[in-house]
Request: fold
Amino acid sequence: MDKTNRIKELVKLLNEASKAYYQEDTEIMSNLEYDTLYDELLLLEKETGFVMSNSPTLNVGYEILSELPKEAHASPMLSLDKTKETDVLKDWLKDKDGILSWKMDGLTVVLTYSDGVLSKAVTRGNGEVGEVITNNAKVFANIPRSISYKGTLIIRGEAVIKYSDFEKINSEIEDVDAKYKNPRNLCSGSVRQLNNEITANRNVHFFAFSMSEPEDRELYATFDDSFEKEFLFLKDLGFDIVEYKRVNAGNIEENVMKFAEKIADNDFPSDGLVLTFDDLEYGKSLGRTAKFPRNSIAFKWADEQADTTLRRVEWSPSRTGLINPIAVFDPVSLEGTTVSRASLHNVSIVKSLELGIGDTVSVYKANMIIPQISENKTRSNNLKIPNKCPSCGEGTVLKNDNGVETLVCPNKSCPAKNIKLFTHFVSRNAMNIDGMSEATLEKFIDAGFIKKLYDIYRLSRYAEEITAMEGFGEKSYKNLMEAVDKSRNAGMDSFIYGLGIPNVGFSNAKVICRHFNYDWNRIVNALPEEYTDIDGIGDVIAQSMTGYFANEENMEVINELLKEITFVIDTEENEQDLEGLTFVITGSLNSFSNRDELKKLIESRGGKVTGSVTGKTSYLINNDITSQSSKNKKAKSLNIPIITEEDFLKLNRKGY
Reply:
C-alpha cells in the first residue's frame, strides 16, 4: 500500500474510533492502539506533505449533537501536542521555567464573569463552537456565583465528577446496563443536561486551568508575565485550580514521578499532565500550529506493560443481546495493583489480536487505570468464537455494523436479556433474598448456573464453582444459601408479585389473594370476569393474570417453583382504615428501616403509595415539614397536608 492510501486508511480508522469514544460511548480500539496509529499518521503526513481535510491531526473534535444553544468561541480551543517521554519535556523547556499540572479527564468549560457575576458558560464543543450551559454551571458544586473582581474575566477549566461520587451514583442504579461506564461519560451527560436539577444532583466540580488575557491591562500587568501568578489570582478569587508544580529541565522528571505516585489515591479522573511555559509573553510569542498552541504540551503516561499468558476468554451476555469478550490471564502487577482480566470489547478486536489460549500477551493500564491488551506476541489465532450463547444455549449471530463485528444472542427469552425479571423476583417486596444482587445474578447467569427462576433454589449444585468465583468464598456462599432457604417460606402475594406479571403490583397481588381467600388453585384458574369483580382490578390486570397463567411455559416455571416454596398465609388482616387514601413518602425515616417497609404497611391497611405529589395525593409523609424540597413546595401549593411518621402512626380513615 502506498503512503497516500495508508494516510486515507488511518484517517478513516482514527475518526471512527474518536466518534465511537466521544459520541457513542463505545470503544473499538485501545488507547495505546489509537496513539500508535495517530503517531504513524503524523509521521506520514510530514513525510508526504499530504494532509486530508478531515485528518484528526487538523480537526479538534466532532459536531455537537445536543439541543442546547450553540455559541462560537472568541478564540479556538485547541488541543495539545503530546509526548510520553520526559526527555522531550526537558528539551521543550530548555532553560525556561514551566508549570506542570494535572490534565483532568472531564469536560472542558469556558466561564465568563461580568461585573463580578457568572454570566455565561460554554462547553468546548468542537473547539470552534460550544454549547451554552450557563444554568448548569451555576449549580456546579464548587463554582463561585460571584467574585470580587468586577471586570470581565474568561476562565477555562475542566468539569469533572469525582470517583467517589461516580461510584455512589452508579451504586444507586439497579439496572446494570444503565450504569455509567466512567466518570468522563457521566460528567459529559451531567453538564449538558437540559434540566439543571439533574446537574446539581451529580455533584460536578470545576477546576480552573487558565484564563484568557483580560482586557484590563492593569490587571494583566500584576501577573508580571507569570502563568503561575495567573493561577494564584484565580485561587484568590475562590476558584479551585488544578494542582501544579513549578518545574525546570533539571527537576521535571522528579516532579512527573511525584504526580504519578498520586494517581492511585486521586479522587478525580486524569489522563496525564500539562506543561506550560511560566513566561506568558514568551509563550504567546511562539504562536500556534493549525491544531496546537506552542506554549503548552501534554504528557501522557508511558504505559507500564507486562507480559502474561492468556488462559481463557469469557463471553459475557448482556441485556442488549451483545456477548462481550473478556480476557482472563495469569495475574500481573501493573501500576501497583494486580490485574488478571481485561475487556476485549468486541469480536473485531479479538480477531485483530489473533488470540489463542496459551498465547503470550502484553497487558497495560490505559491512563494507569483501565486494563487493556496491547499486543499478542504469539498470535496462534486458535480462539473459537462461540456459536452458542453461554447463558441460554441458543445459536449466536455475528453482526457487522460499520466494520465492527459483534457477537449477539438473538433469543428473546435469554436469561441474560431478562435479568430484570430475576432481579425483580429476589427483590424486597417479592421473595426478599438478601445478598442476591443484580451483579451476583449476572455472574450466575453468565456461568450458566441460572436459566429459569427455579434454578435460584437449586444453586447448591454449583457450590464448588460458586465458592471459587471472584468475590465469593465459603462464608459468602453460606450466607447467600441461608437467604435463599429463608425465602422458601413466602407470602402468596409476594410470590405473585415476584413473577413479574405485567401491570400487577404488590398491592394488586395482595388484593387478589385476599379476594380468593389465599386459594392458589382459584387464583390460577379464575376467569377474567372473576378478576374484574374485585374492587380496583380492571380489564387490563384481569387479562394480564389470566393470560400469564394460560401460558404453558409460565406454568412449567411456576410448578417447578412450587416444589421449592411453601406459602405462608398471614391470617391477621390489618383493618382497612386507610382505604381511599393516597400517600407520598419522602426524606429520611426514623420508625421504619426503609420506605418499602412503610409502603407495605400503608398498602396492608388499604392505602396507596405513589412517587409524586399530585392533586390526588391525600398526605405527604416527610419528617422535615419545613423542608424547601420540591415535594414539600408542591404539596403546599396544592394544600395537601404534610405529616411526620409520628403523625401517620396516629392516622386512620377518620383523621387524627
